[in-house]
Amino acid sequence: MTTYAVTGASGHFGRHAVSALIKSGIAPSDIIALVRTPSKAADLAEQGVQVRAADYSDPATLSTALDGVDLLLLVSGTEIGKRAEQHANVIDAAKGAGVSRIVYTSAPRADTSELVLAPEHKATEAVLRASGVPFTILRNGWYVENYLGQLDHNRASGEMVGAAGDGLVSGAPRADYAAAAVAAITQPGHENATYELGGAPAFTMTDLASALTVATGTTIEYRDVSPEENQAILEGAGLDAGTAEFVTALDVAAKRGDLYTESRDLQRLLGRDSTPLAEFLAAAAE
Ligand SMILES: NC(=O)c1ccc[n+]([C@@H]2O[C@H](COP(=O)([O-])OP(=O)(O)OC[C@H]3O[C@@H](n4cnc5c(N)ncnc54)[C@H](OP(=O)(O)O)[C@@H]3O)[C@@H](O)[C@H]2O)c1
């Protein structure tokens, strides 16, 4: 019996991963959902999945939670600024528990990218490589779900505003990246590999606005502005300066091509094409 643990299992990505593990034929009792807040995973326990408390910031919980785990999917955390240390805690505990391989969700070209999110992933990758524990690094591209948060506003205003220019984004749904992670963790041949995952074909924000227009039946146009103007617009909409700066930096990164990849690692792991943008948006618009 091989046991599979998934961190962040109460989150969007973790839930997709647990579902994909079950769909791949792994018995729910061989899956261990590691969650900060077990009450959020009551539905997983009802399916027969083992639910254990694990806080990335609390090494004692991690050692207990990882006891008896063979393969670990480490889903990167959400607390920006704390994540390098938190992920190192998980890797350390996994090593102590004798985990045989860690699959980590990283960021595009984490070791060389100027993306504002890259340094914590780069640091985690370095700890993982130095740990001596066999690993698989999945440098996940952008989630297309990231563009749904503003959809009501986009429909009401008839526009999407940003500073991403004609930058191409290799976006794919979380479910695709999670299915790829499950392929990487359940199948042989991925030991000590690093993959760049991205949806294809890539799209610009103008393409995205056109696809949203088709999916929603409401005309939405992309209006490109300077980073300074974008920052001012976001602050005017109520974002604090730091958050507006962060969001604008992501647009600038997209314009620079940081969210684009020509790699087809995602499709190879999936054994199929990634979900087309139009198909994803049509389902989301329902
Ligand atoms: N590629 C992209 O476009 C993109 C976009 C956003 C995020 N991400 C990355 O992908 C990850 C998964 O995305 P998601 O959409 O599934 O995020 P999510 O729905 O917010 O889920 C994040 C999960 O991480 C858990 N978590 C956070 N801090 C933790 C800690 N200290 N200890 C234990 N668990 C902790 C959360 O637990 P609680 O429920 O207890 O908070 C939650 O289960 C994110 O955490 C982030 O690193 C990627």
Distance between the termini: 41 Å
Domain module count: 2
**Gyration radius over CA:** 19 Å
Q: Based on the structure given, which CATH architecture of the largest domain is correct?
A: 3-Layer(aba) Sandwich
Unreliably modeled segments: none
Number of helices: 12
Q: Give the SSE order as H and E letters.
A: EHEHEHEHEHEHEHEHEHHHH
Can you characterise this structure?
The protein is of the alpha/beta class. It folds into two domains: 4-139, NAD(P)-binding Rossmann-like Domain (Rossmann fold), CATH 3.40.50.720; 141-173 and 197-260 and 274-286, UDP-galactose 4-epimerase, domain 1, CATH 3.90.25. 44% of the residues lie in helices and 15% in strands. The strands form two sheets. It has a seven-stranded parallel sheet with strand order 3-2-1-4-5-6-8, sandwiched between helices. The chain binds NADP nicotinamide-adenine-dinucleotide phosphate. Residues 8, 10-14, 36-37, 40, 54-57, 75-79, 86, 105, 140, 142-143, 146 line the site of NADP nicotinamide-adenine-dinucleotide phosphate.
